[in-house]
Amino acid sequence: MADETKSSSPPPPGNEQKPGAAQPSSAVPSPPVAAGSSAAPPAKPAAPAKPTGPVPIAWDSPLVAKHKRRHGSGLEAFTYLGQNYFIVDRSLIPDFLQVLRDDDKFDYCVDITAAHYPTREKQFDVIWILYSFDRNERIRVKTMIAEGESVPSAVPIWPTANWLEREVYDMFGIKFDGHPDMKRILLPEGWKGHPLRKDYDIILQDKEWVQINLGIESGQ
């Protein structure tokens, strides 16, 4: 009868396994970590420097030279992104505007507007935007005034200044001396305050005028 016990071949040399030894793992071992150290998150890249914006620079031209000879320190001239403008003392208005129309042919008053800077001593800029068809040139004239000050009306120089000055009065509260009809143009006469001032309280007006006069809960 054949022997039921089968003999097995001996393991190859060097691969002998000791009794009780752990089986080798086929996983790749992790690199050793130094004692007491922890993985730090990668440092964020530094924010790029904020680019500087454009700034006004001196404007020099024969037109500027002529008016500087005439008005001296009462006038400055700058250009900003291709927009040329004069800053003039309030005392030069309206004579300066009259000369620009009569002598320099700025015969079209494109717009009159204002800007409010509450922290300044002279809180308001009043700005005239003028165009010359003869010269094909556009300029701006700016003057600064304090709260409660007015400027002379330009209606006798450009009749189109009429409604433009009324809008500035309506939105900013700036009056133009000699205007033929200095009253609001966009808002009703009973409206309180001037909406384009930085300190204007729109919520207060909503309660005091819109709800009372229009009979609605809110104009917002």
Written description of the protein model:
The chain is an alpha/beta fold and 220 residues long. The protein has helices at residues 62-71, 95-102, 161-172, 202-214, and strands spanning 57-58, 75-80, 83-88, 108-116, 124-132, 137-145, 151-152, 176-177. The strands form 2 sheets. Strands 1-2-3-6-5-4 form a 6-stranded mixed β-sheet. Strands 7-8 form a two-stranded parallel sheet. It is 20% helix and 20% strand. It folds into 2 domains: 57-186, Beta Polymerase, domain 2 (2-Layer Sandwich); 188-220, no CATH class.
Please describe the structure with a list of short key phrases separated by commas or semicolons.
alpha/beta, 2 domains, two-stranded parallel ribbon, 8 strands, disordered N terminus
Give a topology summary:
Layout lengths: L56 E2 L3 H10 L3 E6 L2 E6 L6 H8 L5 E9 L7 E9 L4 E9 L5 E2 L8 H12 L3 E2 L24 H13 L6
Parallel strand pairs: 3-6, 7-8
Antiparallel strand pairs: 1-2, 2-3, 4-5, 5-6
In brief:
The chain has 4 helices and 8 strands.
Quick check: average pLDDT?
A: 85
Distance between the termini: 108 Å
CATH superfamily of the largest domain: NADH:ubiquinone oxidoreductase Nqo5 subunit
Domain unit count: 2
Radius of gyration: 40 Å
Q: In the CATH hierarchy, what is the architecture of the largest domain at level 2?
A: 2-Layer Sandwich
Number of strands: 8
CATH fold annotation of the largest domain: Beta Polymerase, domain 2
Low-confidence stretches: 1-8
Strand content: 15-25%
The arrangement of helices and strands along the chain is EHEEHEEEEHEH
Main sheet summary: 6 strands, mixed
| Strand neighbour order, sheet with most strands | 1-2-3-6-5-4
Q: What is the percent of helical residues? A: 10-25%
Which structural class best describes the helix and strand composition? alpha/beta
CATH level-1 class of the largest domain: Alpha Beta
H/I helix tally:
4
Shape: flat
